[in-house]
């Protein structure tokens, strides 16, 4: 359910799918899943304990995440009609899609809280490597699977042109959502 909830991750997959088509959306989805996997890995390695002992670390991650979300929001608002959601010309490269997918995952403090709250309950000090790997793989498969499905559905030949004609409104809505999420993170 965490992967399916609307937020910056969904906005980013939507944005890259509309701007670069199916491949760009899938790349964003898969690199996002790698970012999620990284947090899941950190959780099974003891991130929750580390953050509980060092609240300044969590605060730094939170502020960096908020700044990144705000930057993405401003970028989306400034895109306008001829912005990054157009099918040709200004579309993001696969490298940009990969970067944004990874960074939106790593810059989302809600993911850290989610994994600390959820996964840390299933991790014990004596847990073997296979069980830890299974936890990380499950988180990555659920996240990547959902966002690949979203990219595939949005890039359908009938859906994509309809969405691209409304790209400037999607840019604006995405920008507002990302800025609101950044503000919410800052305000706690």
UniProtKB/TrEMBL annotation:
GO function terms (MF aspect): amino acid transmembrane transporter activity
Subcellular location field: Cell membrane
Annotated signal peptide: none
Chief localization: membrane
Residues in coiled coil: none
Membrane topology per record: Multi-pass membrane protein
Keywords from the named record: Cell membrane, Membrane, Transmembrane, Transmembrane helix
GO CC, alphabetical: plasma membrane
Protein name, per record: LysE family translocator
């Amino acid at each position: 359910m965490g992967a399916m909830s609307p937020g910056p991750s969904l906005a980013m997959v939507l944005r890259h799918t509309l701007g670069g088509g199916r491949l760009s959306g899938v790349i964003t989805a898969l690199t996002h899943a790698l970012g999620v996997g990284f947090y899941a890995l950190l959780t099974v390695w003891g991130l929750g304990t580390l953050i509980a002992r060092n609240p300044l670390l969590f605060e730094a991650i939170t502020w960096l995440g908020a700044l990144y979300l705000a930057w993405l929001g401003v970028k989306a608002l400034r895109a306008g009609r001829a912005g990054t959601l157009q099918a040709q010309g200004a579309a993001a490269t696969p490298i940009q899609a990969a970067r944004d997918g990874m960074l939106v995952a790593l810059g989302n403090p809600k993911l850290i809280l989610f994994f600390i709250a959820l996964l840390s309950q299933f991790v014990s000090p004596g847990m073997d490597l296979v069980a830890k790997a299974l936890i990380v793989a499950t988180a990555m498969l659920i996240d990547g699977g959902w966002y690949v499905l979203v990219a595939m559905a949005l890039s359908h030949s009938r859906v994509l042109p309809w969405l691209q004609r409304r790209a400037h409104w999607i840019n604006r809505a995405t920008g507002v959502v990302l800025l609101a999420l950044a503000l919410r993170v800052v305000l706690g």
